[in-house]
Design brief:
By secondary structure, the chain is α/β, with parallel strands linked by helices. It folds into 4 domains: about 120 residues, Rossmann fold, CATH 3.40.50.11060; about 60 residues; about 160 residues, Rossmann fold; about 60 residues, 2-Layer Sandwich (Alpha-Beta Plaits). The chain is built from 16 helices and 14 strands. The strands form 3 sheets. It has a 6-stranded mixed β-sheet, sandwiched between helices. Strands 2-1-3-4 form a 4-stranded parallel β-sheet, with helices on both faces. A hairpin with a 2-residue loop joins strand 6 and strand 7. Helix 6 runs antiparallel to helix 8. The longest helix is centred in the middle third of the chain and has 42 residues. About 35% of the residues are buried.
Length: about 425
């Protein structure tokens, strides 16, 4: 038996969801969110052995789902040999503690399950820092539950004070860890800011791929750039941002970035923790919102992405809606429009139109020119290799360079341009 198979055999979980009139749509569970919870459990390495759904006017303050339903869940846990219960709704620390005690198994809510997946999938140092920060932020208010033995010894000489001291010690330790992680992520942001300034200086447009988890973002990046990112049919398969160069045309090159997939009920502190990655959205020149056209719930999924884009301050960024998996689309008419394109990242269908739309939005006015440089201006050649697209360098009586240059570069080098571009006339020259 492999390690993964062993883990799956151990993680037998009963899924629980509650729908209450007083809760918001974001907090409530429904058939769709429960199906998604089962997929998340599978992604984490577990298997669903039963589902319990509760309709209630309001959550029970103590057990969340009510004493009667808790007894039903306990009976199902015993009958199915489950060792875990996963609740689709957010639980308070006390509710999570009480349920775990009454059911006799580990109890997680949706946020904790997502955190576990992220912990498994993070590969880069930045990704691991972000996950660790989110875990500590989740753990801090739940520390008291780890010290419930103190409640049973309340008043005992020599127990109360030291116990409280230990609890506070743990809290201070976690707060220090959170502060340290936040500082390290600030360093990450500073590095990203430096890289961003360099891209702006070099006038390289940035295109960010966003979308609901498992919409096909990594497959699209692989298809367009030849990247080798794992693109499996499972939630949160990609956590770490990947950026690749994409040549739209001979005179238009962009940087294409893949981002972590969005999902409904994404814990707020997780969004906060991942802002070092997701903040790229607010600085991108163009967003590609990838939508799974084969999913009957694509409208709801697209709405979740829209909400998070607004939260990240990127709602004003130009956008192209990319309806992916059109080879599996079951409707009569594929989505279409000025800022809409239907594609299949798997088969390549519609990618030419997508590239045309990207080029139409981001063409910087670059031109292919020939420059003749004296030998005492050899440093210009080095600059062109760093900041432009150099296609040819010949050394004769002078240095002849053929390169694709941006308008700013053209203005700086106009005295050396011999063909391919004519400086615009000043108003007084007409």
């Amino acid at each position: 038996m492999t390690e993964n198979e062993t883990k799956q055999a151990k993680n037998r979980a009963v899924l629980v969801g509650l729908n209450a009139h007083c809760l918001s749509a974001e907090e409530n569970a429904d058939d769709t969110s429960m199906e998604e919870l089962a997929d998340l459990l599978e992604t984490a390495g577990g298997v669903c052995v039963g589902t319990v759904f509760q309709n209630k006017d309001a959550p029970d303050p103590r057990t969340f789902i009510g004493e009667g339903k808790a007894a039903e869940v306990k009976e199902l846990v015993g009958a199915m040999g489950a060792d875990m219960v996963v609740v689709d709704n957010p639980l308070s620390p006390s509710q999570q503690r009480v349920l775990s005690e009454e059911l006799g198994v580990q109890v997680l809510d949706r946020a904790a399950l997502i955190l576990d997946i992220f912990a498994q999938r993070a590969r880069t140092r930045e990704g691991r820092l972000q996950v660790e920060l989110a875990q500590y932020q989740y753990l801090l208010p739940r520390l008291l539950g780890m010290w419930t033995h103190l409640e049973r010894q309340e008043g005992a000489i020599g127990t109360r004070g030291p116990g409280e001291t230990q609890l506070e010690t743990d809290r201070r330790h976690i707060r220090r860890k959170i502060s340290k992680l936040e500082e390290e992520l600030k360093d990450v942001r500073r590095v990203r800011a430096t890289q961003r300034e360099r891209r702006i200086k070099n006038e390289v447009p940035v295109v960010a791929i966003v979308g609901y988890t498992n919409a096909g973002k990594s497959t699209l990046l692989n298809r367009l750039t030849g990247a080798d990112i794992p693109a499996n049919n499972r939630l949160f398969d990609t956590l770490d941002t990947t950026t690749r160069t994409l040549e739209i045309s001979d005179t238009c090159t962009v940087l294409l970035s893949d981002t972590v997939g969005f999902i409904r009920k994404l814990p707020h502190h997780l969004v906060e923790a991942f802002k070092a990655t997701l903040e790229e959205l607010s600085y991108a020149d163009l967003l590609l919102h990838v939508i799974d056209a084969s999913n009957p719930l694509w409208r709801e999924q697209a709405a979740v992405v829209e909400q998070l884009i607004v939260e990240l301050g990127a709602e004003q960024t130009p956008r192209i809606d990319v309806f992916n998996k059109c080879d599996r689309f079951t409707g009569d008419i594929l989505p279409h429009g000025a800022d809409i394109v239907s594609i299949s990242a798997k088969t390549g269908q519609g990618l030419d139109e997508l590239l045309k739309k990207i080029g139409g939005r981001l063409d910087t006015g670059a031109c292919r020119v020939v420059l003749r440089l004296p030998y005492d201006q050899g440093g210009v050649v080095d600059m062109l290799h760093r900041q432009a697209k150099v296609e040819r360098v010949d050394y004769g009586e002078a240095i002849e360079v053929e390169a694709v240059c941006t308008p700013v570069q053209l203005g700086r080098l106009k005295d050396y341009i011999v063909s391919g571009w004519t400086p615009p006339k000043e108003p007084w020259e007409d």
